[in-house]
Amino acid sequence: MNFNDKFFLRLIWIVTVVVLLVVLALKLMPPPETKPSFIYLFPHIIGGINATCSVLLVVSLIFIKKKNIQAHKVTNVITFILSAIFLLFYIVFHLYEKDTKYGDIDHNGVLSAVELAAVESTRYIYFFILATHIILAIVVLPLILVSFLRGFNMQVERHKKIVRWAYPVWLYVAVTGVIVYLMISPYYNF
Fold it and tell me: Could you report the per-residue pLDDT of 47-60, keeping only the tens digit for each?
């Protein structure tokens, strides 16, 4: 491992910790009094970005299986950029809007017995998908960054070793992001 590898690995861990701390801080901070009117478009954009990333990850796999390395690289760069944009939109949205409660039909922030009965067991499915999505999103961030760095530097064997783990987790996080969006969107208060 050379100096550049050590530097970038440290940078990757710093980025991972900073992102995690920012997301945790968003959960603890109260939202500002006023919200920009466009903020309500963000969940839909975020869902669209997740769906696009899901498709691009599959396309990237197809390209590499066909040994089209250049198309694989370009697809991964686009997916990486979209994921960064997703993260920015996610942070901005959650700065202004706190979590939506699954099943909160009347948008009052409290689940009544009627609302709970209406969602029944789907609530448990939703929380399982959401929990695995969040945990794996935390885990996959440094894996994505390391695999991207190794692929970009043409460290093919080292790239393959980490992608074996990073790819299925990233794909799962992207797909479950879409599922979470589809399941929670009826309960947005906008």
Answer: 999 999 999 999 99
